Amino acid sequence: MSREKWRTRQQQQQLHTPSDTDILACGSDMNHGAMKKISSMFSTLQEKLHRTKRSASDPGPLQTPAATPPSRRERSHMGQLFFEYLLVVSLKKRRNEDGYEPHITYQFPKREVMGRLQREEEEKCMKAAHLFCFPEGINWAPLTEYSSETFSFVLTEVDGSRRNGYCRRLLPGGSGARVPEAYCIISRVACFGLFSKIFDEVEKRRQISKAMIYPFMQSLREAPLPAPGNTVKISSFIPEAGTEIISLTRPADSWLEHVDFRSLFRCLTDEEVLLVFTAAVMERRIIFISEELSTLSQVLHAVAALLYPFVWQHTFISIVPTVLIDVCAAPTPYLLGVQKNMLELLTDHSDVMIVDLSAGAETRFITRIGDEESLLPAKLREGLLMGLSARTRHATTDELNRLVSETFLSVFIKSVGHFSEHIKRCGNGRQFQKKSFLKAVEHKSHLNFVKLFIQTQMFDLFIQEEEMQPNPNGFFHRKVSEYHERRKKEKTKAGWVRGVVV
Fold first, then answer.
1. pLDDT per residue over 433-448, tens digit each?
2. Is 99 left (phi over 0), alpha (psi -120 to 50) or beta?
3. 87, 106 in Cβ contact below 8 A?
4. CA distance linking residue 71 with residue 465, whole number of Å
5. Pairing state of beta strands 162-170 and 181-187?
6. 225 in helix, strand or coil?
7. Interacting residues of 320 by C-beta distance below 8 A, sequence separation 6+
8. pTM of the complete model
């Protein structure tokens, strides 16, 4: 099939399968052609998810990775607000039944101050967000102790625009047994560390009075969103403490602001990370198992970030709610996070890598295909292990993120970094020349890996963007140029040394 026909088919599928995406409301970002094959499997979920029947003009939000840099299309959607909504999600006893159901008990700003379009957007988002705040479903009981935890998820519209959901679950003040509540921030900004700090301020105010939260969030909403690497200062009054100045800084590396690789390497050894990376590069089905929601969300976003500058294009759900567990049977590629108490619900283990992130797990890989070691070329594998060995125990989050990101980036620089030399002008546009690109692979031992990788959807869509709008000043392009310059100098020096010896 020609590239133009493939694109046309993809566009048609996006136009004619909105009901398939509705079925997974907030569940996944599947390639639409593959969703046709499994739509019958998810049809029963539509009734479970609020029994809401959406029209074709109202596609439900889906979940996709946020650990990767936004596409050019997404940049146009980004506003300058820190966040769009703050939700308080509480567990309420089910009428005449056992268990609890999550309900939104407060939202800021309130609906009455919103315009019509904003209310419509808000309705679509709210129908799904509370499910991800309490993905365990109804199985809750009142508690006397509960350690607060922070995790994240992502909501995506069919047009590609994204919202990030950040959630802090905590036990409300009081005495005796009670159920947790969740504070959820919906934002266009993908920066987990930044919102973790915001939640620290929210939780500090919650301990005094719930009423103290909203003036702080209003100040935050009115503050300008700083550019990557910059800081904004927020003034906030707290009784008995007076006015506090809170500094909020965005990381300088914008594609890493949603990532902390520490959790990934706390759960997995370097060799195990390489196996997961290889499976992700080959766009396979991967399920991560953990008891902790924070571990699932952080590890999945970290794995997606290892693919930079490429973007995971398939199903991505960092925390699968109980009501969507059947998504694990989908035959298409996915990255999923599943709580360990739901492991017995995973009936289809064929061609799936299941990774147990639990401390002290008897086996790290419950299942995997088994060829992951051989798919990654030996030289690239050695380079990755050597690069990762350079990290130190006392490295800051930013230092660790940069080292890990650049180490894995070297795989793509060395294997497919010459792609731009093979995008040629053709008629009124530009076209990728696959044959000449493959012939120009620098190390022949990389060829089989490259042949497999260029068949992936993430590579194909990356090339499409480069054909339409090249970005020669982007970070990846600069690193490729630096690598080629370094190689030229090495070859020149080697030639000079040989000449002297002769």
1. 999 999 999 899 999 9
2. left
3. yes
4. 9
5. antiparallel
6. coil
7. 27, 135, 327, 328, 336, 337, 338, 339, 342
8. 0.78
